[in-house]
Amino acid sequence: MASGTAETRHASRSPSRGAVLRLVAFTTGLTMGMSLLCPAATARPTATPGPSARDVKRSEREVREKAAEVGRTKVELARADGELDRLAVAAEVAIERYHGEQLKLQRSRQVYGETLARSAEADRRLEETQAELASFAAQIYRDNTGYDQMSSALVGHGGPQGFMDRAGMVEMLTKRRTAMVERVEAAKTVADLFRHQAQTASQEQTVATSRADEAKRVAQDAVARQQASVHRIEAEKRRLERRLGRAQEHAARVKRARERALEKAEARKARATLTNSVRPVLAVSAVRGAIAARAALKWLGTPYSWGGGTVAGPSYGVAQGAETQGFDCSGLAMYAWGKAGVYLDHWTGTQWTSGPHIPIDALRPGDLVFFARDPSDLNTIHHVGIYVGDGRMVEAPYTGARVRVSSIHRSDLIGATRPSG
């Protein structure tokens, strides 16, 4: 009895074998869960890797300097274009002046030619008159009317009366000859005057044409030089724009590297927050939320893809996301909670109703935070993020961006849900 009583007392003080096994199993499971949740707890914090804020500012300053160079070159190019227009107008004026001088020269040559023709005709008539007078003089000589008038009157043919007849004819012919000579001399004088005027005009037009040709050449040379200057400036502008492009690419790379470094720092901070917030006494929902938050943090830097994301990870989306493998906001939330064993639809509408709504000041890691165009209207919900603690969330923000950690405190925040599965 004593022995049985002692065994009974011993049994009452000692846990049963089943209880021991249950305690061991619980402890083992808790240890495994904590090892999954808190791998970063043993890691020592390190400095933020990647470019510093000073590096980013320096690269942005280089971009501004090179942009200023391009701007100055564009101003110079605009000035050169204006000068080119002015010189082009000057060249056109010179060319039209050249055309005018050429026309004047053509007309002057025509007048000169006509004057020469009239002068030649006058010379021809003079020669005919001179030939006629010479023939008449010969006839007078043959008729003895060109010698001593007294002897001709006494012994000439027809006697005195014949002499009088011949004398009248000689006077008439002499007057005719004198008139013809006067006309020829006048024609010769006019022809000489026209010839002189034509020669003077021709010389003047030749000089004017030479001046016009020179003006044309000078203007065209100026335009050619200006065009060469424009080409040179344009080449310099292209060179500076290439330098600007390289500087912008470098600045963008530095900025992206800085953002990735900051995102990694935010992720470490979020993991640390998760590590510090999860305790063995938390409910299963807290463990699930922590798992969902860690799953989302795993994909920081993944491209946004409209319609992208499955329970297995990033995927190609639809429409604008058809060529991009990644997540959209609800796709990331579906994936993250899928890793925690809670299966959500790929839609913020049903994700909003997937569990109880949580006050913002009571959020835990993994809770889904929602945003709406009109915070007073649930039908305008358009975005969801996964809360990671300290007022921050993991989100796939918009096309062209990447999965990142950001603040939940925005004007379009409408509420939060804790998926219950």
From TrEMBL:
Record's signal peptide: none
Record field: transmembrane: 20-42
Region described as Disordered: spans on this chain: 42-67
PROSITE patterns: NLPC_P60
Biased composition (Low complexity): 42-51
UniProt record, GO biological process: proteolysis
InterPro entries the UniProt entry points to: NLP_P60_dom, Papain-like_cys_pep_sf, PG_Endopeptidase_C40
Gene3D superfamilies assigned to the protein according to its UniProt record, in alphabetical order: endopeptidase domain like (from Nostoc punctiforme) (3.90.1720.10)
Coiled coil: 223-264
Family affiliation: Belongs to the peptidase C40 family.
Protein known as: NlpC/P60 family protein
Gene source species: Actinomadura syzygii
